[in-house]
Design goal:
With 462 residues, this protein is an alpha+beta fold. It has 15 helices and 16 strands. The chain folds into 4 domains: 90 residues, Uridine Diphospho-n-acetylenolpyruvylglucosamine Reductase, domain 2 (2-Layer Sandwich); 116 residues, Uridine Diphospho-n-acetylenolpyruvylglucosamine Reductase, domain 3 (2-Layer Sandwich); 109 residues, Alpha-Beta Plaits (2-Layer Sandwich); 101 residues, 2-Layer Sandwich (Alpha-Beta Plaits), CATH 3.30.70.2740. The structure holds (2R)-2-hydroxypentanedioic acid and zinc ion (ZN).
């Protein structure tokens, strides 16, 4: 069956590069979740937009399901192919296409890694400001598919803010040219924005025109030690009131211990329960005075117990490692991940209720808290005890996620702030989106992909 299908694909798209080795099927059939056993039909690696269109025309004719695939650094199972789907990898479409000095836009192919996008922007004296730890491996197409956030959302917003135009191949193989980098365009539904965050269920992003901006002035990174989580938002307010923050991230001592064991340098002699990494430009004397005022205010109130500010780029990078290396340091413990958000103003009460809930629900598991607290986004990683079967561990964690979803619902929060719903959070979508919203989303998906070919099983079921 799969042989004859692949023969017909070969006949339909003769120059298409295909991989079918077991190692490749495993590599391309999974993402960073590692929870599902990959089982794709084959891996298609188109070398042009025309080939992507031809593959989708063939998939429509043959009713073959397709999983679009970027860097597969996702944490929600959004790029998993476990049911004989064709993986359509964009990895060969990884080049910058053009830069427009007047529009200040960079047009790139969807498979370009985020870091390469950063470098291409820098070559033009500008920046693409969305950034996060997976920059070297993730692709811009995957970022668009999940409306990726990261460490500078507090200053620059999510991926959504930076997409001026998109080229998208539909389930039937049409090529859509959405918004064409227009700044103003009041001509009906904005399908470009609909595609952003659609997790590969509405179309395959093949090209993106990205807005760039001026590089920020040189910034400093500060690490703060906090005595309790209750003061977290006080510290945030004290710094935000006086400085233009580029980042405001938090993590616990447990997170720090894992990162130190992973090779990072110890920042303070003493152990503190909570830490914040924040970044801002100091600029001139007034800036220096503002930092001092914020720090002294926090010290005087007992909100901060210690602090260090970077004196060089190398030290800034060292401080960032303490936050950015958490995911990698935890990976060997096969964490169960939560990626939740509430309005920033709701964070103190949400944090208190969630800490209590998880303290009671997970007394036997190690729980690691960190995240983009300045955006109201928490990452809660629960670590699997050595020797426990993964299926049992996930089952236990899912029971707690049900309770967490109720707390989120009460606070009007989201079960996925930035990682996407994929397979992992599908069962909890209704804690964040109303039945009417989900019905509309279903209708949109049905209209754009009537045969249900694109990324089946992800986000919600038909
Ligand atoms: C981060 O903020 C990423 O570092 C990953 O979103 C979060 O591993 C996680 O849970
Ligand atoms: Zn994050």
């Amino acid at each position: 069956m799969s042989h004859s299908l692949l023969d017909s694909l070969h006949a339909a798209v003769p120059a298409l590069r295909l991989k079918t080795d077991p190692g490749d099927l495993e590599h391309y059939g999974r993402d960073w979740t590692r929870r599902w056993t990959p089982n794709p039909l084959a891996i298609a690696l188109p070398g042009s937009v025309e080939e992507v269109q031809a593959v989708m025309r063939w998939a429509s004719e043959q009713a073959v399901k397709v999983v679009p695939s970027g860097g597969r650094t996702g944490l929600s199972g959004g790029a998993v192919a476990a049911n004989g789907e064709l993986v359509l990898s964009l990895e060969r479409l990884n080049k910058p296409l053009s830069f427009d000095r007047v529009d200040r836009t960079l047009t790139v192919q969807a498979g370009m890694p985020l870091q390469a996008v950063h470098e291409a922007a820098r070559e033009q004296g500008l920046v693409y400001p969305v950034d996060f730890a997976a920059r070297g491996s993730c692709s811009i197409g995957g970022n668009i598919a999940t409306n990726a956030g990261g460490i500078h959302v507090i200053r620059y917003g999510n991926t959504r803010e930076w997409i001026a135009g998109l080229k998208v191949v539909t389930a039937s193989g049409e090529l859509l040219d959405l918004n064409r980098a227009l700044v103003k365009n009041s001509s009906g539904y904005d399908l470009r924005q609909l595609m952003i965050g659609s997790e590969g269920t509405l179309g395959i992003v093949v090209e993106a025109t990205l807005r760039l901006t001026d590089p920020p002035p040189p910034s400093n990174v500060m690490l703060l030690a906090l005595p309790s989580f209750e003061v977290l938002m006080e510290v945030f307010a004290a710094f935000r009131q006086r400085l233009q923050l580029e980042a405001f991230e938090f993590f616990t001592d447990i997170a720090l211990r894992h990162v130190l064991a992973h090779g990072a340098a110890k920042p303070f002699e003493e152990v503190h329960p909570y830490y914040v990494v924040t970044e801002f430009a100091i600029g001139d004397e007034a800036g220096e005075a503002a930092v001092m005022a914020a720090f002294e205010d926090c010290m005087a109130h007992g909100w901060v117990s210690d602090g260090v500010i970077s004196q060089s780029d190398a030290q800034a990078r060292q401080l960032w490692r303490l936050r950015e290396d958490i995911t990698e340091a935890l990976a060997p413990h096969v964490p169960y991940k939560n990626d939740v958000s509430v309005r920033i103003s709701q964070m103190p009460v949400f944090l208190a209720q969630t800490m209590q809930l998880l303290g009671e629900a997970y007394p036997h598991f190690e729980v690691v808290w960190f995240g983009h607290i300045g955006d109201g986004n928490l990452h809660i990683n629960v670590l699997k005890p050595a020797g426990m079967a993964q299926a049992d561990f996930v089952r236990d964690c899912e029971q707690v996620t049900r309770l967490l979803a109720q707390v989120l619902k009460r606070h009007g929060g989201s079960i996925s702030a930035e990682h996407g719903i994929g397979l992992v959070k599908k069962a909890y979508l209704d804690s964040t989106r109303s039945p009417a919203e989900i019905a509309l989303m279903r209708g949109i998906r049905q209209a754009m992909d009537p045969a249900g070919l694109l990324n089946p099983g992800k986000l919600f079921d038909p």
